[in-house]
Amino acid sequence: LDKELMTESSLFNPLADIKVKVQSSFMVSLGEFQGKAPGSFPQGTPRPFGSMQGRSKALFIQSLASISSSSQLRSTALFGHLGGRLVIPNTGVSLLIPHGAIPEESSWEIYLAITQKESSLEPEGPEVLLGPEVSCGPPELAPSSPCALSIPHCAHADPQHWSIHLKRRTQQGKWEEVMSVEEETTSCYCLLDPYACHILLNSFGTYALIGEPLSDCAVRQLKVAVFGCLSCNSLDYNLRVYCVDNTPCAFQEVVSDERLQGGQLLEEPKLLHFKGNTCSLQISVLDVPPFLWRIKPFTACQEVPFSRVWRGSPRPLLGAFSLERFSPATTQLCCTVSVRQLQGHEQLLHVQTSVLE
User: What InterPro entries would the database entry show (predicted)?
Assistant: First the structure.
């Protein structure tokens, strides 16, 4: 879980099966930055405005204030002519500013934010949102060379089954299509890998990845995980099964929520391939030890409609189960959680835990 989806090397040395849609001159520019300033990678620590001009500072504050204060997924840092890299920890979202993008003897305060919960983008027709809505800015600032924005996605990006587009929010609040990742454009270039899209941008703003399924075989990759904790009634133990987009930022939200509730991760999360075949998702608890535990009535199996899973949800999708032990002396719980799509893929999560830990 601590691994970062994109390292510096992955951007400059793509795997053989990755489609590269980036002009060589831009890659050379970013490569020079990596060679000249290997240590200038700010890690999202807020810094003073320093020598920023008053107007730039005011624009920054105004732009940052437009992002909902309820979102904690943001980073800010001060950058100069050498450039640097701004990341939102544990989310897979980052912004790489190359050497020379900022004028000499200047310093810019740059922000990067995820606005997934308050997303204003409403996909049209069969389109679905494949990752978080990401803002970088202030949008009034214009770097002299392209910056690389990395946005994680949850699609099994097969061009036979998906048409993936990049959209940008205009100053009027409307969304417009910037490009398709399968086509060249003169205003934007991108590199799509199995877990993220790395986009070279000439201007800051708010961006999102949209996918249109081309067949029933289009796959949305979900991460499934099970958490547990004792309830107020000490004889009951609660299991919460999450199915979220396979992006670090989506799972980070689950981890944060569970930390507040005292939940513990009971099994390594697994990947579920959810197909666009209109079949629903079924979550079940199996193999509960008889005479030691019982599932509260009508909760052994829960079904989630296809549309709710496929189109995503602003809140993490979960199935909640309550298990009751017959005796306080029972401290061990062993069972299996099944998460499967009808006529599709299934994952089994094996729970073996001490409920008193």
Answer: UNC5A-D, UPA, ZU5_dom
Instruction: Report whether pLDDT(98) > 80.
Output: yes
Q: Where in the chain is the domain with CATH 2.60.220.30?
A: 73-213
Q: How many CB atoms lie within 10 A of CB 284?
A: 19
Average pLDDT, the chain: 81
pLDDT of residue 254: 93
Closest CA relative to residue 174, chosen from 136, 131, 139, 206:
206
Q: Look at residue 165 in the predicted model and tell me its pLDDT.
A: 92
Q: To which residue do tokens 């020079």 refer? A: 32
List beta partners, residue 270. Answer: 224
Give the largest CA-CA distance in the chain: 74
* CA atoms of 333 and 323, how far apart (whole Å): 10
> Which one, of 80, 107, 106, 175, lies nearest residue 135 by Cα?
175
- As its CATH architecture, domain 219-354 has Sandwich (2.60)
Give burial (CB, 10 Å; 0-12/13-18/19+) of 144: exposed
Transcribe 55-100 into DSSP letters.
HHHHHHHHHHHTS-TT---EEEEEE-TT-EEEEETTTTEEEEE-TT
Residues 6+ apart with CB under 8 A from 177: 165, 166, 167
For the chain, residues classed under CATH 2.60.40.2660 are 219-354
8 Å CB contact between 152 and 134? no
Strands 293-295 and 317-325: antiparallel
- Pairwise CA distance, residues 183 & 339, whole Å: 36
Q: How many CA atoms lie within 13 A of 61 on its CB side?
A: 8
Q: How many CB atoms lie within 10 A of CB 34?
A: 18
With respect to CATH, is domain 73-213 assigned 2.60.220.30?
Answer: yes
pLDDT for the residue 182: 72
pLDDT tens profile 163-210: 999 999 988 889 999 888 777 666 678 888 999 999 999 899 999 999
Helix boundaries (H) for the chain: 8-12, 24-36, 54-65, 248-261, 306-310
